[in-house]
Write a structure and sequence with these properties.
Layout lengths: L7 H36 L3 H16 L3 H10 L2 E3 L9 H10 L2 E8 L3 H8 L7 H7 L9 E7 L4 E5 L2
Antiparallel strand pairs: 1-2, 2-3, 3-4
Length: 161
């Protein structure tokens, strides 16, 4: 009787070890994805960053933002406006940008395809390239978008109009 069951224990052990290895690898992969998303949530579209970006949007809506739209139509890709050169209320704008700790502020089209292509072919944009891959945007919407980079490394983006 013992001779007919020879190797059964070895086969059973190999099957169990293989199954447990696959399950552990799958769990490791899933936890790695969760930690990656968790890390991005601290740098991309945080609640604090969205609130600060909303304050900039409110400021733009209450001032003459039509110059930004006109410049965007002329330059055709993006407008960097953190220097407040567009605003009639330049001292207020500069104070707002300083208090909100804005590093860079981009005004772009909602269809960000040309902006993404432009940034990917440049070396000086750093983490912005990773953030652009994170944004979910509508290619068919004809509006605009604000992308704000803060001095603490956070990025946020909201639809403007």
């Amino acid at each position: 009787m013992r001779k007919t069951q020879r190797g059964f224990l070895l086969t059973e052990a190999v099957i169990v070890i293989t199954f447990i290895s696959i399950v552990l690898f799958y769990l490791f992969w899933q936890f790695n994805n969760v930690f990656s998303v968790y890390e991005k949530s601290f740098h991309f579209n945080s609640v604090d960053g969205l609130y600060r970006t909303s304050e900039i949007k409110t400021f733009l809506l209450k001032t003459n933002f039509s110059e930004l739209i006109q410049q965007l139509h002329e330059e055709n890709i993006y407008i960097e406006f953190s220097d407040c050169s567009f605003s009639n209320a330049t001292p207020f704008c500069e104070d707002l940008m300083a208090k909100l700790e804005v590093e860079n502020a981009y005004f772009i089209y909602e269809n960000m395809t040309s902006f993404i292509n432009y940034v990917e072919h440049r070396q000086d944009y750093g983490e912005l390239i990773n953030y652009l891959d994170y944004i979910d945007y509508d290619r068919n919407y004809l509006g605009y978008r604000l992308i704000i980079e803060f001095s603490d490394g956070q990025f946020t983006s909201i639809v403007f109009l």
